[in-house]
Amino acid sequence: MKLDLLMKIFIIILLLPVLLYAQFTNDDQDLVKTTFERSFNKRVISNYLNAGGGQKVNAALLSISNSEDTSFIPDIISLQFAKHAEYICFALGQLGSSSISSDYVWSKLHSDDITKFSRYLFEALGKVGSEDDLKKIITLYANFDGPSFPYSGISLAVYQFAFRGIKNESSIRILIDEIDNPITPVESKNDALFALARLGNSEKINDELKRILLLHPSENPDTVKLKQFALMNLRVEKFFPQDKQLFSLLLTATNPLLLIEAAKSLVYYNFNSTDDVLEYLKLLDNGNPNVSVSAAASLKNITLPIGTEDSLKSVISKLILKKNLAANTKGELFLSYTKLFPKSDVTPFLDSIDDRFYYDYLGSNTQDKSSLLFLLRKYEIEENLAEKIDLLSNILNFQESFSQNKNLYEAVINSLSSGFAPLVSIAADGIDSLLIIKDRGKLITIIQRQIAYRKNDPDFMEGIMSLTYLAERIDSSLFTEVIDELNESNLYSIRKFIADKSGQKLKYEKPLQDFNEIWRNAFTYKTANVETEKGNFTIEFLPRYAPVSVGNFCKLAGKGFYNGIEFHRVVPGFVIQCGDPSATGWGGPGYDIISEFSPLPYDIGMVGMASAGKDTEGSQWFVMQGNYPHLNGRYTIFARVTKGMDVVYKIDQDTKIINVTLLP
To answer: Residue 585 contacts by C-beta under 8 Å, 6 or more apart in sequence?
Structure first.
């Protein structure tokens, strides 16, 4: 109950700035329609921009932000900045690099607007600016004479520049200074901590990381973020302070996210005794499967104390055979065991672990011909698609044996020729230059046949993408042929992918298929109760930011689409993901919708749409277990958890949804 109450308060505070004006409403069908079909009708959008009201203008800016049309920039910068600052900055940033946009942002940074809107402005500058703009930011920061830089958002700029490949030692130094300064505001410190963790970390901040982790335990969202990002930095650095008090303190954390992150970071502690390791192993008995599986998977990174190998080997062996240990925890513990004790006999464990973990073990033994032989035999007779995916991924680790093993060669070629998109995609992505040299002609024939036959199949999108990348690696003329063929696809998502890949103008607009039914559902329901095998959680829809995604979810849920579906992907502390009837991560509803990016942040409890790229969303969705700003503006947010976050943290891979109930 306490976690849910804090979550509600946090979400209200989080969304207050962007809720001052509603965005899309039930009266905006014409704007949503032109956004859906990707025509971005300038007459319709202009009417909204000139409407005067905050809601209409912000809705138009959200539409424009997804258009990729820089001709809208003059219209954007003519708007009243103080009234629409966040949405103006977001739209400019989403439209990408532009000297007009960067000049405009600098004009606002050099005005009184910087005090109130610096966060939006700096992030936008990181998305639209050039290397010279980064140098100007570095100079601005260096020339400020005061105890701390007073404007929020400079670390966001550094990160966005770096995401585009624009960075230098001085920009990274800004992040270090922001973290190391004891009076840097918490929000700015969080920005810098996350950016540095993503860009490479630095041992120079280790003392500050320790200070953060020793802060009084609190469920305050900013404090949780600080500690999450501090632990992320330690994990990236593969370091943990030699402080037994801190070690023990983190092992007793009550916040599930922090306990998950601690499990991943504490393995870099310098374990001095068997007792130290046994204290860590208590995490395996944690009632939260995401905590226990994180500990089991991270255990492989421990450096065992000298002289403890035999005793700890016995302890871990018994844990793997323990009956009440969760299946995924047991499997990850088995894999860690094989890394810690590589010459051990694994036969006693095979009846205790799921097959996929054994496949992963065999796939890591690339010098063992018997491992490859087992995987190939199993792959040949296996009928379950999810099992075949696991097997093929591991078989491809043995590519150096292509020339010596006919069965390996045939398995990869047959997968590339198959009617299953996951197998085609895995094979195409995994083929190395040796096979391209060995049988270039056969690969060309397979690609040509698959592209011609599958170009209008919405469930083959990722397979088509992988075949296109493979064609590009094989031959430039083949790549051109594939581009021309796919340009005639009936599917907007494929034509969009090809246009982005080739730099050509997108042919045709997105058909309005399913739009009317989606629109009818967009504002009909306020919440949904998601009943799972681990308990229930409630999501509140956000159609004012993503009406198409909300309408699509409600359309599918109303038909029982999600009932019985598994959470096929769980990354502890990051996301839980579901919505694929095949439970492989490759399935969908048989059609795609559109991306609806917005300024909403990917913080704990936000619900987003999974995709294989822009405008490829379908039925798969995910819930955030942690705070991950790098997803902001790159994936659609359409809902948020308002009740049951404790359940979200307990959901394990393969947990099933029992029922989704829509509530008006």
So the answer is: 422, 568, 569, 577, 620
Determine the pLDDT at residue 614: 94
Q: State how far the Cα of 600 lies from the Cα of 18, in Å rounded to an integer.
A: 8
Burial class from Cβ neighbours inside 10 Å (0-12, 13-18, 19+) for residue 494 reads buried
587 in the same domain as 555: yes
> What are the DSSP calls for 192-242, one per residue?
HHHHHHHHT--GGGHHHHHHHHTSPP---HHHHHHHHHHHHHHHHHT---S
**Last residue in a domain, options 476, 502, 528:** 502
Domain boundary among 475, 502, 529: 502
Q: What is the rounded distance in angstroms from the CA atom of residue 268 to the CA atom of residue 232?
A: 12
Three-class secondary structure of residue 592 per DSSP: coil
CB 24 within 8 A of CB 547: yes
Return phi, psi of residue 556, to 5°. Answer: -70, -45
Residue 78: inside a domain: no
Percentage, residues of the chain above pLDDT 90: 85
191 in Cβ contact with 178 (< 8 Å): yes
Instruction: Note whether residue 532 is domain-resident.
Output: yes
Same domain assignment for residues 584 and 614: yes
Domain identity same for 624 and 550: yes
Token digits of residue 461: 């999108």
Are residues 564 and 654 both part of a single domain? yes
497 and 577 together in one domain: no
Q: What is the 3-state secondary structure (H, E, C) of 301-322?
A: HCCCCCCCHHHHHHHHHHHHCC
**418-468: per-residue pLDDT in tens?**
999 999 999 999 888 777 777 889 999 999 999 999 999 988 999 999 999
Does one domain contain both 401 and 529? Answer: no
Measured between alpha carbons, how far is 430 from 578 in angstroms, rounded to an integer?
Answer: 25
Please report, as a single letter, which amino acid is at residue 539.
I
Count of domains in the chain? 2
Is-contact 61 87, C-beta < 8 A?
A: yes
Instruction: Classify residue 591: in a domain, yes or no.
Output: yes
